[in-house]
Amino acid sequence: MKVQIFQFFLLLLISITIGCSNSESSTEEVKGTDQPNEEQSENPGPDEQEPIEPEETVFFAKMSYESFRNGGLVSRVEYQFESNKLVGTQSFRPDGTLNNYKEYEYNESGLLKTRITYDSEGTAEFIESLDYVNGNLSSGRTIRNNRNVPDTLFVTYTYTNNIITAETVFSPPGEVVFYTEYDLDENGNIWRSDNGIVAEVTLENGMPIAKSVFRPDRIDEYEHVYLESPEPKGPLAYFRRSIFGNLNNQIIVWNGNLISYEDNVDLPLYILQVGDQLRVQYEFDSNDLPIRIEKTYNDFDRKTIWQIEYQD
Does the structure show a pLDDT above 70 at 232? Predict the structure, then answer.
């Protein structure tokens, strides 16, 4: 099967959606653990070393997205950067009042170490932390203070042969709440996930070209369509890599979800459509940098609109 590629004008109208949660949600938590990873293979993934970012000549000035459901505005999120590194976000309600804000802290290798979510009064609701071994996620922890009885989620990532397992434990009482197995191909890329529902992705040159989700009552199949030109460049091209590191990290950090290449990771081409699940339209400036991205999702009539500005 060959990748379906189309070349469009600067303003593109196509929508995309996937059968899993969207990592752009302003309320989604980084699920992690501080428990040690007991088993680390000699070759756990495609990028053991920390990623080397390209030399930066273009810098974010502003970035925001608005989320809509059934035609109504749900939230607006604004991003804060320091030299293209995401350091904070602010989430606003439809009436413009502050809902919450997040602060990001990175380790010496430039990978996300801690993210803290505060409510509008400045009280820490979620304290999330991630740990890495050789650039690969090894564990994480989420302290949830917004419950009547505060609790903690721990996740451990284990690498064995060509399988990554992610186990999330709820404490108290210490029960497993998410367990996912990820299978790697010969290049070390995730192509299959099983969290009770199996999802398989067909990869071609490291790019997803098709996806099958095996549900109890049906099989959902999606084909991927990409934009041939322009190719991704500028800070948005490696936005998620600058936070989580390698491609597998970008996928498994959302333990509990189905495998998703479509909307959670950095890809070498702009994705336009995934079956009837997701459609995307882009608008570019004169330098072929994306300045507006509209994503339409099949479930719950969801839509997000991203606005991006760059420094002169």
Answer: yes
